Amino acid sequence: MFLIISGGNAPGNQLVQDRAAHASRIIAADKGACYCLDAGVIPDIVVGDMDSIDSRSLEKLHEYNVELEEHSTDKDQTDTQLALDLAVRGGADKVEILAACGDRFDHSLANVHLLYRARSLGVPAVILSTTQRIFLVDKEIFLRGSKGLTISLLPLTMRADGIYLSGFLYDLENASMEIGNPYGISNTITSDKARISINNGVLIVTIASVV
What pTM was computed for the model? Predict the structure, then answer.
């Protein structure tokens, strides 16, 4: 697993430490380097335009000989996209992204879109925080150990068809979801082995209060 720490809301030192312990490579996207250092975690590489890293953090990165891949501020990619592309090129089999959501809704939404980019490149990716887990579903998955948690499903594509949910408070059979009708908000997982299946399209899945 490759870990990306982005520059949204601070992920919390414990979460950074926990996920870093499971990562084979740690990539900080700009300000994410500060979150790493605050948690006592040294990233393998920092990528971005470096416009959100304070001078003290930069000094520490140089002290630890951390590789810096600096890009112009006049670029088409976000810092997190640069980090994701770096992870894919580096052979990541899975990517976890921390600090991907925050006060900038445009950046938060862009990071959800990056889950689709990762999927298109053949690498499963998930956004994690202390309060939620966000990932995409386009086929079938089983959710284990999440009984009692709140889950929401929204279409990322214009439509998602052939949706089957079992093990939920509100199960579905051959249902459809489309942008503009968000009826998949705030369902509840009622089984130790809940199932989501979809025949066409892509769903955004958010599970609340889980790491």
Answer: 0.91
| Domain boundary, last residue among 130, 150, 185 | 130
Token pair recorded at residue 197:
């299946």
Q: Which domain holds residue 108?
A: 2-130
Averages of pLDDT over each 10 residues, the chain, 211 residues: 96 96 96 95 94 88 90 85 96 97 92 96 95 95 93 96 97 96 96 96 90 46
**Collapsed DSSP state (helix, strand, coil) of residue 8:** coil
Interatomic CA distance for residues 182 and 173, integer angstroms: 17
Q: How far apart are the first and last CA of the chain?
A: 15
Select from 113, 130, 147 the last residue of a domain. Answer: 130
| 155 and 179 co-located in one domain | yes
Residue among 32, 47, 136 at smallest CA distance from 84: 47
